[in-house]
Specification:
79% helix
């Protein structure tokens, strides 16, 4: 009978240990599940942000492609047929010379540190 009581006490002691370990494991599991939910939410936010950035990049590329298609350098292509009438450039030698001189003077002012116009 003493042996039976000792075994019962040992079983109760080990049961208490198992119960405590079980509680600890459940707490740890709960914590890990909470962290997983937070990580999943952050991952979804990052994926959404990445998709927005990709869409913005595609829009920017499309706009650049369209602008590139509308503009062709007259030196290489001659008169650009694709340009709209309102934005066609006439290669006026006097106007080009005036702009070149004005740009040169502005560059000299910028280099000398005098930014007054």
């Amino acid at each position: 009978m003493v042996l039976g009581i000792a075994m019962a006490e040992g079983w109760q002691s080990s049961q208490v240990t198992y119960d405590a370990e079980n509680r600890n494991l459940r707490n740890e599991l709960s914590t890990m599940q909470s962290v997983m939910r937070e990580n999943d939410e952050m991952a979804r936010d990052l994926v959404a942000e990445l998709e927005d950035l990709r869409a913005a990049l595609e829009e920017e590329r499309a706009a650049m492609k369209q602008a590139s298609a509308e503009y062709q350098d007259s030196v290489h292509q001659g008169d650009n047929v694709g340009q709209k009438i309102e934005s066609q450039t006439v290669n006026d030698a006097d106007a080009i010379a005036r702009i070149a001189l004005e740009s040169y003077r502005q560059a000299l002012k910028d280099m000398s540190g005098n930014n007054e116009e």
